[in-house]
Amino acid sequence: MDKIGQALVSVAEVKFYDPTTDYELGSAFALTDSGINSEMQNAEVRGGFMNQLLFDIKHTRSFSVNFTSATFKPIYLSFQTGTNIVVGAKNVYMFNDCVTATDGSVTLSKTPVGPVNVQLPNGTIIDVANPGSATFSVGSGVNGECICAYAYNNAQVSNISINSDTQPKTVKAVMHVRAQEQDGTIGTYEIVIPRLKFTGTIDFSFTADGVSSTNISGTALSYTDNGACGQQKYADWTFIPDTASIVDPIAIAAVPGKIALVTNDTITPSIYAIRGGTYSNELLTSKLAFVSSNTEIASVNATTGLITAVSVGSANISVTYDAAGLNLGTTIAVTVTAGT
């Protein structure tokens, strides 16, 4: 990895999934900004001379994300309201239905389901109580253009109810953020939030000279990984390299490093790559070579590492790992005693 570090470039891309079935619910790829915030509260324990700080106990970690989309999708509103998108018939309103009156008779573009508000050609406004059909009279002798407003039934609309008693939805969120070093893009960070609870906040600002953005923020809920006895967590942060592993190991180690066997026993040691720092060790399964210092005492399979105790004595098993120009090694001490 570059010694300078990585730049997290551009805005995140996000997909949302059903937390139970893992079916995709929607995506957010037109984001103008995205952010992650994790905080902890603390409790100080002080005492002694000058009320010294003795302990600083961290607790109540929170993990939240904030997305702002340049575009609107009905599913964003559904997430925040906690209600599903229902497709079907519903009464909706028609504004500014411009029709021509001939001797008082007008025909609307839709059939009204209630009263019709009519602005007559002379500017007078009247209300016609539920005419029952699209054609009706606005008064004898009226001629010219009339502007009408009314409700009608649309058989195919998508409706989201903003209820007073529903909770925002909880989803599984998967974020992708590109990472780049000075010599080019190297990979993707994937942040998986198994349980993201939306805030329920709905905030739109409509202006004459702009386009409204949509906020789709939420807070992670604690989740038990791998069943009831798993680790409680909010999210997983994983690096996906574009090419081979970026952080090279600095050494390899065998577990166990010393082995005691009786004749005819066998064992296959585990070989780990040591990356150092805050990186965990990695179990190696390939590009390993094993050689015994004395095959009459302990033999070893050159590729699998299976050690067989042959006769009483001591031997060393040399292990080398050769990948990406690395040539790392370690030694396993084997002692063989006679079987009973």
Structure description:
- This protein is mainly β.
- The protein has 3 domains: 7-45 and 53-82 and 164-241, Pnp Oxidase, Chain A (Roll); 88-159, no CATH class; 251-337, Immunoglobulin-like, CATH 2.60.40.
- Helices cover 2% and strands 56% of the residues.
- It contains 1 helix and 27 strands.
- The strands form 7 sheets. Strands 1, 2, 3, 4, 11, 12, 13, 14 and 17 form a 9-stranded antiparallel β-sheet that branches.
- The longest helix is centred in the N-terminal third of the chain and has 8 residues, at 74-81.
- The protein starts with 6 loop residues before the first strand and ends with a strand.
- The model has no long low-confidence stretch (mean pLDDT 91).
Query: Could you tell me the radius of gyration in angstroms?
Result: 35 Å
Report the top-level CATH class of the largest domain. Mainly Beta
Distance between the termini: 53 Å
Biggest sheet statistics: 9 strands, antiparallel
